[in-house]
Amino acid sequence: MVEKVDVYSDKSNGSKIYAFDYLRVIALVMILYDHLGGFYNLNWIVKKIIDFFFAVPLDIIQDFGAFGVSLFFLLSGFLFTYNGNYKNEAKKTFKKTMKTYVGCLMAFFLFYILQRLTWIIKTTYWSQFSTKQWIESMTLVGYFTGHGDVINGTTWFLIPLFLFYLVRIGYAWIYEKIKPEYNFLFLELFVLLIMFLLKGFHLSVSSTLVFVYMPLMGMILGEIFRKERRISIFNGSLLLILNYVLMVIWFWVFAREYHDTYCYFVSFIYSLFLIIIFAIFKEQFKKSQMIDFCCKISLSVYLMHMTFGRFLLSFFSYISIPFSLSFVITIAVIFLISYIHMNILSRIIR
To answer: How many whole angstroms separate alpha carbon 113 and alpha carbon 118?
Structure first.
């Protein structure tokens, strides 16, 4: 889910990089459109138009959901190395992890309370799940037991994200000790070892952890584009190719449907080129309060939009409100509760 809590500024010169804020919001819009629009209502006129002009001819799957997720992952890695601020990385990463995890727990708990109140009047889709399944999903333990996304199908994103956090601690720890090329090779070997262990133990979490290769790709790009570049374009390109090859291999092993059947890598390549374009033309983007607001609440939106959004759309359908109007109202409500969620979370994790 992006990741959604990185600082989007160039620490080398102290200036804000607004281009990546815009890109982050684009990714968020793609995911909201997928989960609450195109995927939810296959007959929506907006979906049919977008499919005709964009999704079908450009071979974009999941109603741009894969595109948006790829963007979030790539941005997370890109901005980490591009900013080049590696001091106290372990402490910063721990705080970032706690903020994300506590935010996840809060989002689940609030939705559970809403469902308990609703069940007094009428059963819902979420009535079928046991207390154990709620706890497994809420704590993310379900991704290791095989029941992780039964209640909120978006939280799988957090599993490879947390692995990426571990990877970046390692990168920051040895950054000044060896050349960045060797640093990246070390990380590739570390992730490769994890993939072999996953294959050996047949863990159900394997199909999500493989996505860690996407922020790794972003890290390499960020190192290439930063002003104080410590890696040549040639060596960086070789690392990009190596990372891509390993990613393809492990997707084939752990998530073969995305390799053989659904063209996930098409959306990933689009995301890659989009980040490169925005990095090249970053000076053309100016500050926007609306974009800034969307970025601040993006983590909360990601954690809450699937559950609360699907519930609201179901309710509006039950009282026969046209879908286009339901979609607009739902997005507005999601942004409101995400703003509240973000403020409460900020008070808890300072």
So the answer is: 9
Mean pLDDT by 10 residues, the chain (350 residues): 39 64 96 96 96 96 96 96 90 94 96 97 94 93 82 94 96 90 95 95 91 97 88 94 97 94 94 96 94 96 97 96 98 98 91
Structural domain range at position 342: 9-348
pTM given for the model: 0.92
Q: Which residues contact 248 (CB under 8 A, 6 or more apart)?
A: 259, 265
Look at residue 206 and give its three-state secondary structure.
helix
Report the C-alpha gap between 171 and 166 in whole angstroms: 9
pLDDT score at 15: 53
- Sequence-distant (≥ 6) Cβ neighbours of residue 10 within 8 angstroms: 16, 17, 82, 83, 227
> Residue 100 falls within a domain, yes or no?
yes
CB 242 within 8 A of CB 188: yes
Residue 71: partners with Cβ closer than 8 Å, 6 or more residues away: 2, 23, 24, 26, 27, 30, 271, 274, 275
Residue 2: inside a domain = no
Domain count, the chain: 1
3-state secondary structure of 172: helix
